[in-house]
Amino acid sequence: MVPLFYNARSLWARRLSTGLTVLGLGLVVFVFSAVLMLANGIESALAAGGDPANAVILRKGATSELVSGVERDAVRILATDPAVASGQQGEPLVAGELVVLVALPRGEQAMNTTARGVEPESFTARPEVRLISGRRPRPGTNEVALGRALVGSSPDATLGGELRFAQQRWPVVGVFEAGAGAFESELWADATRLGGAFNRPGYSSALVRLRSAEDMAAFEKRVEADPRFTLEAKPEPTYWAEQASGLATFIRVLGLFVSFVFSLGAVLGAMITMYAQVATRIAELGMLRAVGFRRRSVLASVVAESLMLGAAGGLLGALGALTTRWLHVRTLNFQTFSEVSFGFTPTPGILLGALLFGTMMGLIGGLLPALRAARLSILDALRA
Amino acid sequence: MSLEAVPAPPPMVRLEGVSKTYRRGTVEVPVLEAVDLAIDPGAFVAFMGPSGSGKSTLLNLISGLDQPTTGIVEVAGRNLAELNDRELSDWRAAHVGFVFQLYNLIPVLTAAENVELPLLLTPLSRAERRKHVAAALDVVGLSHRVGHRPPQMSGGEQQRVAIARAIVTDPDLIIADEPTGDLDRKAAEAVLDLFGVLHHDLHKTLVMVTHDPHAAERAERVHHLEKGVLQ
Fold first, then answer.
1. Could you read off the pLDDT of A250-282 as tens digits, one per residue?
2. Set of chain A residues whose Cβ sits within 8 Å of the Cβ of B121
3. What is the pTM of this model?
4. Where would I find the ABC3 transporter permease C-terminal domain in this sequence (chain A) (predicted)?
5. Could you say which of A219, A236, A363, B82 has the lowest number of CB atoms within 10 Å?
């Protein structure tokens, strides 16, 4: 086996072309891993905060709260279910919630924002929603609390500011966080006041907190079978994962396609570099063959060298992608027609995948030059 | 008391009816014709002749880098035509040391690492390899240049490193193709002195191709080649 430090030093000896190739590979790996981190961030943002003991009740067949409707009577009936948890005063932890889109100004344009009409139990049933400044909106008023991702997204979207939509004024009295979940991109107001402003007497959904997540399956069956309404229940994490899947899949597929196209260029770059490495070292390779190294040793040596290039590119790209974890992006979730804020969320799997992707590009780029090196005639190589 | 004749040792190199023809397009170019030759173990043989006379081709056949068109090439009792590419590689690693005109050292490796290369094909441990490398560099008088890389050395020193690489595995046969062709007179003398040590003190079989009559004088026997025919 030809020693690996021979390859490492040969790459270092031609560090300009090596560096440029690693940079090219690294950029592709950066796009690849950033896209996966982005898709993961969307899923985390939308799916986070879902509590497995919480059930979301929607009209049967509705794919999101926006296209769902739940009668007020149905919410009262749901509150009588034996599996429903109780609050500190013994009240059933069931909240009717109304979801509408409001247009908040941003520059000269408007952004669609999800406004959630809530009841006091909405906060109690979701312990992950915590006020980080101000207070909760008082029931029966137009007061709103902002998810922290909304703060600053519109001129008046700050604590103490006053939003205007549905021809009414909505003072901001609190800012909350929700474990980086989708609620952080929402504004919460009193359900009845919001329903009045939008002429919506019913709710979009109901939130039911069960005594235990283990009661969920039986509860889902009871809701499904109840002849008094045509509703369905699903665990809150399942609901949010479904909301995330469309956008995350779209970004993932588009991003991977772009990465694939870019990778062709990077593989060509690696191939050109490795062909140049072989071409400038033909006499060395001929000597190695003459003194007894077999064809496969020379092949393995050139492949190992291109793997080094690829691994270095993978590492560079993965490290570059890691720096994006402090960035946040807002985009429209076309399943809910509202903007959602999310970050680039790395996982060990994505970073490992990035390294493998870079190494794989190096391998593919090095195969043909390695074959050429292994097939060299010793006499021709020694004369080079 | 009876006197029995001691049988002569088999030759290290035996060529019988060896010819070599290269094909250039549709034209066949004969390079060697019906060469018969025997080189004894421990001999120092030089081949001379004008360019294109077939000297290097003969060397390539003896060292297993090329195969004859017809005839038998036997080295250390082994008919090289019986070996495939992989077996020839292993055979060269075990039996042949090479000294090239342009040294063919790897510039990114140190002198010691260059010398160690053929030992990587042996089962020796790292410590044993280091011992062999040190001994080989000592023979060529370059113990003080162990950590230097070829670009930091003179041509003569580089060729001595190449000689250390050729002897480090203790091969049966050392092949030298124009070993002094790229050196000044003083460096060439040092290299030829070293060949003298390998021949006289270490009893190595040396086969050298050279244009230089002064270099050829150091050999025990000089063969002349003219248009592919051994004179």
1. 878 888 888 888 888 888 888 988 888 888 889
2. 291-293
3. 0.73
4. 257-377
5. B82
